[in-house]
Amino acid sequence: MKQAIAIPVPAPQAVSVLGVPVVPFESYEQAVRYVAEAVEKQTPSFWVAVNPQKVHRALHDPELMEVLRQADAGICDGVGVSLASRILNGRSIPRCTGCDLFLKLIELAAERGWGVFLLGASPQSNQGAAQKLQERYPGLRIVGRQDGFFKDDQAVIRQINDSGADLLFVAMGTPRQEKWIRRHRGQIQASFCMGVGGSFDVASGTARRAPKLMQWMGTEFLYQLVTQPGRWKRQIVYFPFVARVIGQRLARIFHKETPTA
Asked: Which of 94, 137, 106, 84 is CA-nearest to residue 36?
């Protein structure tokens, strides 16, 4: 018989990074406990992975900003977000990447018998991810999957609900995946939903993550810039992101130093 995971304290209070709330989970284990509670209590929960690219895009996309603010939890997906929090809030946030959290939840799903639905990516990557994950995690129940090339949202939602999935992972890229989940969250019966970007590509082996040392140092963007030069536009957003963070910090300092009339 499955035992519920007790959560002795409320989830950490989210902090703002340029208007985007990020929950400072102390560890992956802590984050996983909150997801497990949502699944076991069948509480609808929508999480987002927050990185500099997503924050930068949200600053120019009001709909995406609203989606990120309405999510049940935003995790610190990039070292840039952690450093930005240090500058803006006086405290850094431990990293909790979307890809790693995805894999840890897949592992827990295999242990607890939760149903998993994989939505998004190319047909080859989606199928490959399902196959590799089931090989890596014996007992994993992938109750349904659908690649990202579909036109009928309602048909896909029926497919998800008919599967009885507990966890829905959506790999459509930002902002499509976040907007899609938020738009249809009220119809989706899976307890937990999260956009996972290129995680299916990683799981299937069609894409490689940065070496462990670069992951630890938070310099995956350099690896991506070298190995995927055609996607350089994704990396240059770091410069306006950093400028925005520093500008906001300086504005706060100036405001404090300016005498009131």
From this structure: 106
Cβ(116)–Cβ(143) below 8 Å:
yes
What is the SS3 assignment for 43? coil
Reported as a single tens digit per residue, the pLDDT across 127-180 is: 999 999 999 999 999 999 999 999 999 999 999 999 999 999 999 999 999 999
Do 11 and 73 touch, CB atoms closer than 8 A?
Answer: yes
**Are 103 and 167 within 8 A, CB to CB?**
no
Domains of the chain: 15-206 (3.40.50)
Q: How far is CA 235 from CA 143, 223, 232, 245, 255, in A?
A: 36, 11, 5, 16, 31
Q: How far apart are CA 202 and CA 218, in angstroms?
A: 17
Residue in 72, 84, 85, 62 with CA at minimum distance from that of residue 35: 72
Where would I find the beta strands (DSSP E) of 104-166?
115-120, 141-146
Element (H, E) at 83: helix 79-89
pTM for the complete prediction?
0.88
Tokens at 25, concatenated: 């989970």
Which residues are CB-neighbours of 102 under 8 A, at least 6 positions away? Answer: 169, 194, 196, 199, 203
